[in-house]
Every structure is written in structure tokens, then in C-alpha cells.
Amino acid sequence: MVGAGPGDPELLTVRAHKLLQSADVVLHDALVSQEILALLPNGAERIAVGKRIGDGKDQTARQQEINDLLARHASEGKCVVRLKAGDPFMFGRGIEEVRALAAVGAPCEVVPGITAGIAAAELCRIPLTERYRNTSALFCTGQTADYSLSHFSAVIELMKAGTPLVMYMGFEQLDKIVRRFIDSGLSPELPACAVSRVSRSDQALVAATLGTIVEQLRERELPLPVVFIIGEHAVPEGAVRENEDRTDQTDQVYLTDLVKSE
Ligand SMILES: C[S@@+](CC[C@H](N)C(=O)[O-])C[C@H]1O[C@@H](n2cnc3c(N)ncnc32)[C@H](O)[C@@H]1O
Question: Engineered SS bond to 254: which of 22, 32, 52, 205, CB 3.0-4.6 Å?
Fold first, then answer.
């Protein structure tokens, strides 16, 4: 069970890279980048098992299919890599697959990966924790299995106390979520960032506020996947602005400065 990180192959762990090189079979998600798939050895069988929007497949049946495939290949004595975007356990159903393997007696190693929210924060220089400023950071999903937003009541209380929120899978329901935040007393001026395609060559960042983010995203048509960072901390330090002529301070659109030392 291997975390592929957010997309840039250089953000793979050494352990992940080593296992990919010795894989007989790789079952991968839709979000695993082409650059990482290009690292697979020629002889490795590749199976795409990711969810595709609008493919109409039932999620429970899909997960069962994946569990069966993992168990079948493992029982044939193959080195099977289940490659998941980001970190396998971070909103990734990794533990369900580990349990399914344990149930059939297949040994399984879990290799952590850099999760999209952490990578987004670091690459955009948004400090999720800072000395003397906050003592917690929150990770949440913008979706739940039953599509209710009930989990946000507790989240909002922590945000009111200054805890920054990193939100996965929030794009589809963003307008509803933002309305709920503002109706529950969070300030429309609260900084809110959307980071699209974290660590990829076309990574983009929209730095806005709760009151403006929905409109900003409508105008920008950012490509998915997108992760959000919301809170007083969600102010990127030193990112490169796409259009230097813009003078408004709240609705800034940046292309992130992906500075890497060679
Ligand atoms: C099913 S979750 C999987 C999260 C993954 N396990 C992780 O740790 O990053 C999918 C969500 O993760 C976020 N995500 C994953 N990769 C991303 C990337 N490269 N850029 C932006 N968001 C990403 C998006 O919010 C997306 O809707």
C-alpha cells in the first residue's frame, strides 16, 4: 500500500520508488500522475482502478473489485503495489484495503506518502502551524458518504478558535460549504486558498476570501484536483502573482513559484 504523493515524482519517498521498481503488478488511482506511472518498469502490469467522474460505477462494488484483485494477485505470490495518490490513509480508503488483505492472510506493508494538503501548504508557503499563533490544524473532507455537511458543526467551532482548515474533495459542494461557514458566523473576510494540481507543472493557486472564493473559481475554471486551505493562516508568502497589474489585495490569483534547486 504505497503513497504516491501529490504528483511530482521527486516527492515520492525512496521506499515508494524502490517498491515500484520491483513491482509485478501496480493497481493505481486516477489521481496518480503520468510522470510517476512513467517510472514503472516495462514488465510491470498496470491496472487503473480509479474512480472517474460520471463513470456510473457503484462505489461499493468498485471497492470490492479492487479488494478481490489485490487478494488474487497477492495469492499468486506476486509483488503487488497498490499505488494511491498522496497518502494512502488520508481520505484514501487505504485501511479498508489493508483489512481486506489481512482477511485473506496476505502480508502487506504500508508506505506513507506526502498528502496533497500538506504539499499544497508547503509549496505555497502557507504555514499550517506557527509558534505563538495556533496549536492545531484540521483536515476534513468536503464530502461524506451520505452527502450531509453535518461534520462541519465541530469544524466551524475550531475554525472560530483560529484553527486552519485543509479541505479535500470540497470543489463540488464549495458554494454550499462556504454558505454554511458564513451563516455560522465565520467572517467573509477570512482568507481562503484553492490549490489546483499541487506539485504538477501546471499547479495554480487562487488566494481569495470566504466571501469571494466561489466567484473566483467560477471565473478561473481551475483544473481538478483542487485542495482548499481556509483560515487566518491561508495567506501565501512570496508566491508569484500571475498578473502583477492586479492591485486588489483580497482576490489574488497566483501561479505558484515552484522553485526547486537543481
Ligand atoms: C480521495 S481524496 C485522496 C487524497 C489523497 N489520499 C492524499 O493524501 O492527498 C482526493 C482529493 O485529494 C485532493 N488532491 C489529491 N491530489 C491532489 C493534487 N495533486 N492537487 C490538489 N488536490 C489534490 C483533492 O481535494 C481531491 O479531491
Answer: 205
